[in-house]
Specification:
Length: 194
């Protein structure tokens, strides 16, 4: 068995060595008459090719991370939020906006959200609230004048609420006109409809 293994390894080495020598001599013949400019172009082309391959790899990796995060978020929100809409403080919870509504109405008053994921599709109206959002996903904003806020269907009205290190997904943020400029400056990544 040992002799057979030795013979196979030796044959493979001979094959690789002779093939490598033949390959090296054919490459030497191809590159023999190259000028320094042609070598510089080859080096630049190789560098650009490697850069593009690395960018492609990082784009594929980012797409995969986004795909997995979206799947996890959908799985967490499939059954609704296990929350009590009467609680005053929510910490590190995944909350569907419509689960915050009570039979008494669509106003969420003086509540604190710390590290929560808030998920639409209900529109959010912010009034007198402090906002420290870490991430927005599929969110658009619109400014409104306070007299028209009551005509928005299926809204969740946040009055004097505090959002700390929260993430908001899949909703339209309705920001009062007096808060709109500050909100735009603080969160330039959120697209505005008006």
């Amino acid at each position: 068995m040992g002799q057979w293994t030795y013979d196979k390894v030796a044959a493979l080495y001979v094959l690789l060595a002779t093939g490598g020598a033949a390959l090296t001599s054919s490459f030497a013949a191809i590159f023999a008459g190259w000028t320094p400019f042609e070598w510089a172009c080859l080096g630049l082309g190789t560098a650009i090719g490697l850069y593009l391959l690395l960018k492609l790899g990082s784009a594929i990796g980012a797409w995969d991370i986004h795909r997995r995060a979206t799947a996890q978020l959908l799985e967490r929100t499939r059954q609704g939020s296990p929350i009590n809409p009467l609680d005053a403080v929510y910490t590190n919870q995944t909350i569907r906006l419509d689960d915050l509504l009570t039979p008494a109405g669509a106003t969420v008053y003086q509540k604190t959200f710390i590290g929560c994921d808030l998920i639409g599709p209900a529109p959010m109206i912010l009034s007198g609230s402090t906002v420290d959002i870490v991430l927005f996903g599929n969110v658009e904003a619109v400014s409104f004048d306070g007299t028209r806020a009551t005509s928005v269907p299926n809204k969740v009205f946040f009055s004097r609420c505090n959002f700390q290190s929260c993430r908001i997904f899949n909703t339209v943020l309705m920001v009062p006109e007096e808060m709109a400029d500050g909100f735009r400056a603080a969160y330039p990544m959120v697209p505005w409809m008006n």
